[in-house]
Design goal:
Helix 1 packs across helix 2. The protein has one domain. It is an alpha+beta fold. The strands form 2 sheets. Strands 1, 2, 3, 4, 7, 11 and 12 form a 7-stranded antiparallel β-sheet that branches. Strands 5, 6, 8, 9 and 10 form a 5-stranded mixed β-sheet that branches. The protein is elongated, with a radius of gyration of 20 Å. The termini are far apart. It contains 3 helices and 12 strands; from the N terminus they run E-H-H-E-E-E-E-E-E-E-E-E-E-E-H.
């Protein structure tokens, strides 16, 4: 039998890109000359200077639901048979693995551009086959973290039905309600460590 799992909630769309010192300097020079105070106010100019956009990142670009705000609707054909939240399914916890980590380090990347868009609404549909009718206990959310210098998000990296990883069959219309862009440097990290 064919089943459909529709996923709703808050989604974090993340793009992370490593920059050279020269690229950081070119962005800061542009902001100084053109009078910009915040990165978000000059995102288009940053994209031009760096020849970058969120889909062209050299670290990662991902779109994932936030774990604690995720809701599910389970359909058999077009008939709704159950609805539940992420609190009612099993969790595979991988949050200690730093899967999506974007904090500059001495022995790693020194400058990282981070773009975060927060969307809300119906997110996507997962399709799968099952010989028995599924129930909410059959689903597992694999949870990882997306970490910046100032923020930490618990996100659903994958959804499993029993031991099978489900694939997205259709993306749904969602609404953007927050956008941010920031360039973190090793100097920012040291400055915050010494002032806190």
């Amino acid at each position: 039998m064919r089943y459909y799992l529709k996923v709703y909630g808050r989604e974090i769309e993340m793009s992370s890109h490593v920059l050279s010192d020269e690229q950081v300097d070119s962005v800061k020079k542009m902001m100084l000359i053109e009078g910009y105070k915040r990165y978000i106010d000059c995102q288009e100019r940053i994209e031009e200077i760096l020849n970058w956009n969120k889909f062209k990142s050299n670290m990662f670009y991902i779109t994932k639901p936030e774990f604690y705000d995720t809701k599910f609707e389970l359909y058999e054909h077009n008939i709704l048979i159950d609805s539940f939240t992420s609190k009612e399914v099993s969790m595979k916890d991988r949050r200690d693995e730093r899967v999506y980590y974007t904090v500059p380090q001495d022995d790693w990347h020194h400058n990282i551009l981070v773009s975060v868009e927060e969307n809300k609404g119906p997110l996507y549909i997962l399709e799968f086959n099952s010989d028995t009718r599924p129930n909410r206990q059959d689903f597992i959310c694999e949870v990882v973290t997306f970490e910046t210098h100032t923020d930490l998000y618990d996100i659903v990296d994958s959804i499993f039905y029993k031991n099978t990883k489900l694939q997205i069959s259709e993306f749904l219309d969602k609404k953007n309600y927050s956008t941010s862009i920031k360039i973190w440097t090793l100097d920012d990290i040291y400055r915050d460590l010494t002032t806190n």
